[in-house]
Amino acid sequence: MSSETLIYIILSGIVALLLALFQYLYKNKGKSKRNILFSFLRFISIFSILLLLINPKFEQLHVYIEKPNLVIAVDNSNSVKHLKHENEAKAVLEAILNNKLLNEKFNIDIYTFGEALKAIDSVTFLEKQTNIDDAFNKLTQIYKQTISPTIFITDGNQTYGNDYEFIASTYKQPIYPVILGDTITYADLKIQQLNVNRYAYLKNSFPVETIVVYNGNTNISSRFIVTQGNTTVYSESISLTKNKNSKTINFTLPANSVGVGAYKATIIPIDNEKNTVNNTKNFAIEVINQKTKIAIVSDFSHPDLGAFKKSIESNEQRSVVFLNSNEIINQINDFQLIILYQPNGKFKSILELLQKENKNKFVIIGSKTDLPFLNASIKEYDHDIINQTESYQATLNENYSPFIIDDIDFESFPPLISNYDPVTFSVPFETILAKSINSIEINEPLLATFEREGRREAVLFGENIWQWRAQSFINSKTFNQFDDFIGKLVQYLASDKKQTRLNVDYESFYNGGHNVILKAQFFDKNYVFDTRETLIITVKNKISDEEKTFPLILKNNNYEVDLNNLAPSEYSFVIKAENENISKSGDFTIIEYNVEQQFLNANVTKLQQIATNSGGASYFIDNTENLTNNLLNDNRFNPVQKSNKNIIPLIDYKYLLFLIALSLAIEWFLRKYNGLI
Question: How far apart are CA 500 and CA 584, in angstroms?
Fold first, then answer.
């Protein structure tokens, strides 16, 4: 409290006392006990009111003890169970949780990790993927400002994600790995990697590359075999030694029938081999009859052209050819889709021919587009000519109906350069992406589609989409999301199928251990996304004839069903709308492969390295006796006394208001009782 405030309080006390004495002693010319009591009550009332007006502030000091956190992260993946250490892991976890001294010294937080970090204390060791990088990344965010030594109970084997040794170096906490494994090296022969394209073409041969690795000290011989069903389609003898411990096998297989073909690659196990699961890898390939050919027509070079080609050809069912406005004229019927990039007056013949042939097209409009020519040539939409450009970002229309679109964080993408000219459509159209400036949508389409007289068209009102592909890679560390978006748009435009009220998005085959997710969209009769419908999927195992039924869950602008629990096999499915007589059917195959069962040992070296770099220590699962003592005796993890100093104004004290009301009430009651009122 400042000296100035103290002076005001003293003056308030003097003023309150003088007023009280003046009213009840000086004015009444008497010093009776009753007048003295009245003076005291009046002094209390006036002084309290003046204090509220001054509103002095008081310091309140709160002292408390803050215990450090003890973070326990348990590897919940199937590799722990495969290496037969699940019981030891549970025992270590239980011993830590039941230790009274640890509970007194630490706040214990428990997590499990597999595909993602989860704040739960039950472990099943059933997760099919391990992302230790994600676990460290999330723990770094949670425990950024605290003392939080971290126990990692894991075998250190990661199936996807960035190298966790790097992210662990940014985690500013001591790390104590409890290693689920040992340092014993076992002789092992395995298929390290198998590379094959997802698609092949009928009557062609497709290449397969297999890398076989041997870990052992003796010379061995084995045989590599590829089978399809009960038929052996390829075999080769191999010999490996301690020094020559790997071999790359390249061969081709024929694509004789349309559809999904499932294969099994096997390297015959050597004697006394401990892990034979990694001797086999299943793979599949979809044989298609022909490629979808797309022509990109442009009279000048631009980075957008390469971005479109890369995205479209990421699906091997499609090929892209670059042509200028003259070259395309005699080849128009060779392509299922024509993409016109920033057309000008030279495109007159091709636009007339596309109109005459009623062919699907995709028009991209940018700063070099001849808008007066376009207005004269395309009747479905018209630009007001202002001859100015603007940078627009994209906002996804979640109610877009022709096909399913995932939000790939469009709002984070760089703006596209687009003509400022407003656009008027003369036909019904649907907006995929709307224009926005500073996150404010302006009710203008950036990317739109429409159907007219049996043909499908799309128009993009912007250039520099190559920057979107680059930003998508920065966001997700892969081009897949952006390429899938462009792929779905091209698939829609290259098809002449009529729009349906039930659309289903699925793959022809899935690799075991990956997400087996089917998505669907259902629309009412006006083709508006309908969230009231109930969709049910019936999945039939073609081999066992077993049927299972699941509901599809509404998620954002899609219905979804997760079929990860299905065993590897061939399946057919039917999705039905319960309230409408509408259904869609299809087939898919789940290829057997459990990446978590490919490991033979724990990754001891890397776990010991991150422990040393972080100032922690590593322990093997059968030698954790010193872990508890080290945590209890480490002075870095002592509880810290902290204090909070709060500045509280007097007006926050309700008791003072109560005192004012009480003193005034007593004074009024006594005056009334004595007949002075």
Answer: 10
**Cα angle 436, 441, 447; round to 5:** 60
pLDDT of residue 598: 67
Name the residue among 49, 23, 27 with its Cα closest to residue 38. 23
H helices present in 22-127, as ranges = 33-54, 78-82, 86-97, 100-105
Q: What is the pLDDT of residues 167-215, one digit of tens each?
A: 888 899 999 999 987 666 677 888 888 888 877 877 788 899 999 998 8
Decide if 540 contacts 578 (C-beta within 8 A). no
What burial letters (b/e) apply to 456-469, b meaning 16+ CB within 10 Å? bbbbbbbbbbbbbb
Tokens linked to 655: 């008791």
Spatial neighbors of 615 by CB under 8 A, at least 6 apart, are: 174
Q: What would the two tokens of residue 272 be? A: 């006394």
- Say how many C-beta atoms besides its own lie within 10 A of residue 50's C-beta: 17
For 488, 651, 671, the CA distances from 43, given in Å and listed in that order, are 83, 19, 15
Q: For residue 527, what pLDDT is reported?
A: 64
CA dist 39 and 114 (Å) reads: 76
Q: How many residues does the chain have?
A: 677
Q: What is d(CA 90, CA 607) in angstroms, rounded to the nearest whole number?
A: 19
pLDDT per position as a tens digit, 617-656: 999 887 788 898 899 988 888 887 777 777 778 777 777 8
- Residue 565 has which token pair? 């629990």
**Other CB atoms within 10 Å distance of the CB of residue 82:** 20
CA-nearest of 239, 464, 506, 505 to 367 is 464
The torsion angle over the Cα atoms of residues 564, 567, 572 and 575, rounded to 10 degrees, is: -30
What does the buried/exposed string (b/e) look like for 309-325 if buried means 16 or more CB atoms within 10 Å of the residue's CB?
bbbbbebebbebebbeb
Pairing of strands 69-75, 150-154: parallel
Q: How far apart are CA 421 and CA 513, in angstroms?
A: 50
Q: How far apart are the first and last CA of the chain?
A: 41
List Cβ neighbours of 676 (8 Å cut-off, separation of 6 or more).
none
Question: Rounded to an integer, what distance in angstroms lies between the CA atom of residue 429 and that of residue 53?
Answer: 66
The answer to whether 64 and 29 are in contact (CB under 8 A) is no
Check residue 127 and report its DSSP letter: B
Whether residue 93 contacts residue 153, with contact meaning beta carbons closer than 8 Å, is answered with: yes
pTM for this model (two decimals):
0.57
Nearest to 384 by CA among 421, 424, 435: 421
Could you tell me if 513 and 594 are in contact, meaning their C-beta atoms sit under 8 angstroms apart? yes
Digit-coded pLDDT (tens) for 452-464: 877 889 999 999 9
Which long-range CB contacts under 8 A does 540-547 form with residues at least 24 apart? 540/571, 540/572, 540/573, 541/567, 541/569, 541/570, 541/571, 542/569, 542/570, 542/571, 542/572, 542/587, 543/569, 543/570, 544/569
CA angle centred on 522, ends 516 and 526, rounded to 5°: 160
Residue 73 in contact with residue 111, Cβ under 8 Å? Answer: yes
Q: Percent helix, strand, coil in the chain (nearest 5)?
A: 30, 35, 35
Residue 356 burial (CB < 10 Å; 0-12/13-18/19+)?
exposed
Single-letter amino acid code for the residue at 220:
I
- Name the token pair of 152: 């990692």
Longest dimension (CA), the chain: 126
pLDDT under 70: residue ranges of the chain:
1, 26-31, 121, 182-185, 496-499, 512-514, 525-528, 594-598, 600, 677
DSSP tag of 245 = -
Phi, psi of 351 (to 5 degrees): -65, -40
